[in-house]
Design brief:
About 40% of the residues lie in helices and about 15% in strands. By secondary structure, it is an alpha/beta fold. It has one domain: 3-Layer(aba) Sandwich (Rossmann fold), CATH 3.40.50. The longest helix is centred in the C-terminal third of the chain and has 16 residues.
Length: about 150
C-alpha cells in the first residue's frame, strides 16, 4: 500500500523537472512499474479530486530515468477506484474526474466503483466499516480488478 504522505512531492512544475526529477518520484515510479494493477482510494474535496492525487499522477507520468515516457508505467494496466466523503454522494464527483484522468494515462479503469457517503460516520472505534455491505462493495471493486 502506498500512502501519499510517505512521498512528499513538490507541486509539479516543468522547471523543477528540468532541474532533476525528485527522488521520491523515482521511488514511486519504481513501485508502480512492479505492479499490474492498482486500487486508488481518494477523498473528495469540494467536488473534485484532491490536488495531492492529481499532482502525484502528474509526476508519475513524467519521463522515466531511462528516458521512456512515464505513461508506460500505466499502459495496459488496470485500476480500481473508490472514494469517500462526508457528503451524501461519497465522492462520486471525484470518481468521475479521476476515471477520465486515469483513462488518459492509458489505464483500464474497472467499471465497478464505490463511493462511501457519510464517511465520517461509517467507521467504528477500530477504524472498521460499520456496514458489511460497504465492505462487500469494496470487495466487488477488487474482484473486478482481479478479473482483468
Amino acid at each position: 500500500m502506498i500512502d501519499l504522505n510517505d512521498f512528499p512531492l513538490p507541486i509539479y512544475n516543468g522547471d523543477i523537472e528540468d532541474a532533476g526529477v525528485p527522488a521520491k518520484v523515482r521511488e514511486m515510479q519504481a513501485i508502480f512499474d512492479q505492479h499490474d494493477s492498482f486500487l486508488i482510494a481518494t477523498p473528495e474535496y469540494n467536488g473534485a479530486v484532491p490536488a495531492l492525487v492529481k499532482n502525484t499522477l502528474d509526476w508519475m507520468s513524467r519521463s522515466l530515468e531511462n528516458g521512456d515516457s512515464g505513461i508506460t508505467l500505466f499502459k495496459g494496466k488496470v485500476v480500481g477506484i473508490i472514494s469517500a466523503s462526508p457528503g451524501a454522494l461519497g465522492g462520486l464527483r471525484a470518481l468521475l474526474a479521476l476515471r477520465d484522468q486515469l483513462a488518459k494515462l492509458s489505464l483500464w479503469v474497472a467499471p465497478t466503483q464505490f463511493a462511501l457517503g457519510q464517511a465520517h460516520e461509517a467507521f467504528d472505534d477500530n477504524n472498521q466499516l460499520k456496514n458489511d455491505e460497504h465492505g462487500k462493495r469494496i470487495q466487488a471493486v477488487i474482484e473486478d480488478i482481479a478479473a482483468f
